[in-house]
Amino acid sequence: PDAVEAMIVAAAGGHHVFLLGPPGAGKTMLAARLPGLLPDLSARAALEVSSIRSLAGMSVGRSLVRRPPFEAPHHTASAVALVGGGADPRPGEISLSHNGVLFLDELPEWDRKALEVLREPLESGTVTVSRAARSSEFPARFQLVAAMNPCPCGWFGDNSGRCRCTPDAIERYRGKLSGPLLDRIDIHLAMTRLQHEELHLNAAPGESSAQIRERVIRTRDLQQKRTGICNAHLSQSQLKEHCQLSTSNQDLLDKAMNALQLSARATYRILRVARTIADLAGSEHIN
Fold this sequence. Notes:
Blueprint: H1 2-13, E1 17-20, H2 27-37, H3 43-55, E2 70-71, H4 79-83, E3 84-85, E4 90-91, H5 93-96, E5 101-104, H6 112-116, H7 119-124, E6 126-130, E7 135-139, E8 143-148, H8 167-174, H9 179-182, E9 187-190, H10 209-226, H11 236-242, H12 247-260, H13 264-280
Parallel strand pairs: 1-8, 1-9, 2-5, 5-8
Antiparallel strand pairs: 3-4, 6-7
Helix pairs in contact: 1-2, 1-10, 1-13
């Protein structure tokens, strides 16, 4: 339930998500379901997505692409495959994910150079590919979902106790990810495997994707009326205007900043996510 709620918040506010959990926890399934929770693309967004795919040599059919794209490149993909390139520069995976979702599974298995090229597009929403003959700028306002196991064997922290990884091995494994990259991801979620009883075919069904999508669309409409953008993209001045905290909430955030040594970027991420949670609850103020 916590993982589902996190994905609902991510869909409603356009937030990046980092999923950490053992094999079989549902990380890949959640990522694949996220596009189904998102509203249809606007006319402008559909034109952008269709144009990018056409430029990349992909067929778009007789009409514009109306659903958010979902790209899940393999972890052997190079930095050029992600950002784009070639003698006549073409868009890469992050541009093909524009106005949609980019899913990167097995994050520590990726080449570190490939992951580091994501840092600037995650902030700016664009990527510039420079070659000797020309320089091309492609849009790359994507929603990142990244997933990884907690250790090399995948079972660290699992109740089964089957993990045999040493602390040094776990530290090296997690150390493949840079702090600046993780600092740009809004929601970090530690997942656990479902109990067998929860997987029974006669188990009570949860809320359907169609029902969740209606809530997400209402929340997105609210954000569009307020600022014209998703909460994940709120500027510092917009945060000051729309994310004011009560004295007690501000004290709590200040204590967390000091205790957890949070960066300014992380603090702003917390405010953006809090604004989305309040919007989902129909609250004008962040409580």
